[in-house]
TrEMBL record:
Protein name, per record: HMG box domain-containing protein
Biased segments, Basic and acidic residues type: 75-115, 122-134
Plastid among keywords: no
One annotated Gene Ontology cellular component of this protein: nucleus
Keywords: Coiled coil, DNA-binding, Nucleus
DNA-binding region as annotated in the record: 136-198
GO biological process: regulation of transcription by RNA polymerase II
Region (Disordered): 74-138
Domain HMG box: 136-198
Gene3D superfamilies in alphabetical order: High mobility group box domain (1.10.30.10)
Pfam families, per database record: HMG_box_2 (PF09011)
Gene Ontology MF annotations: DNA binding
Coiled coil residues, start to end: 169-200
């Protein structure tokens, strides 16, 4: 291998390492360890000064702080941008100081959360598209019908969700049949209504 070829190979390797290092530096970390935005730093300080001291109600303080940020010049925002970078570096250092197993676990959980949010965003987009087209609302499935029935009238439905979900898993096919039939009926009605709209 000639000197030139060796130099080229070393250059390519160095470039790849630099690129990988850049990717790692900007890798999205779990919640609480990512760099805040300059606006977030500003808003936090403003709300702490106003809401924390009782000078303004939370909603009013938020609107005022947001308007103040919008009216600020780039020069005025520099201080908060610098602080945001410093906080980001400190948070990354804190994350990197954690045991490898803990970091992997947190990264996995963060990735699952992002995927869940992305999935929900797609579902919301599809729902908006259906509404824009005037299509009927998607019918609930058997499980949703069961949960609706069992949580109705509960003083605090959220507290009973886990219990009801657990009960659903232990129910026999015969016990679920009532909800399955109702779900099938609603699905049929939905398909018929959808077909009528699509023919127009």
């Amino acid at each position: 291998m000639s000197t030139i070829q060796l130099f080229r190979r070393l250059s390519v390797t160095a470039s790849r390492c630099a690129l990988e290092a850049t990717k790692q530096a900007h890798k999205r970390l779990p919640k609480g360890f990512n760099r805040p935005t300059a606006m977030a730093v500003f808003m936090q300080q403003e709300l702490k000064n106003k809401v924390g001291t009782g000078k303004a109600a939370p909603n009013t303080a938020f609107v005022e702080a947001k308007n103040k940020w919008t009216s600020m010049s780039a020069e005025q925002k520099k201080h908060y941008e610098t602080e945001a970078v410093q906080r980001g570096e400190k948070r990354r250092e804190e994350f990197n100081s954690l045991p490898e197993a803990k970091k992997e676990e947190m990264l996995k959980e963060a990735q699952e959360t992002r995927e869940k949010h992305a999935k929900n965003a797609k579902l919301r987009e599809k729902r908006r598209e259906r509404e824009a087209k005037g299509l009927p609302k998607l019918p609930p499935n058997a499980y949703a019908l069961y949960m609706k029935e069992h949580l109705a009238g509960k003083p605090s439905p959220v507290e009973h969700m886990a219990e009801s979900a657990k009960k659903w898993k232990t129910m026999s096919a015969a016990q679920k049949e009532k909800y399955e039939k109702e779900a099938e009926h609603l699905k049929k009605e939905y398909e018929e209504a959808k077909a009528k709209l699509e023919k127009k």
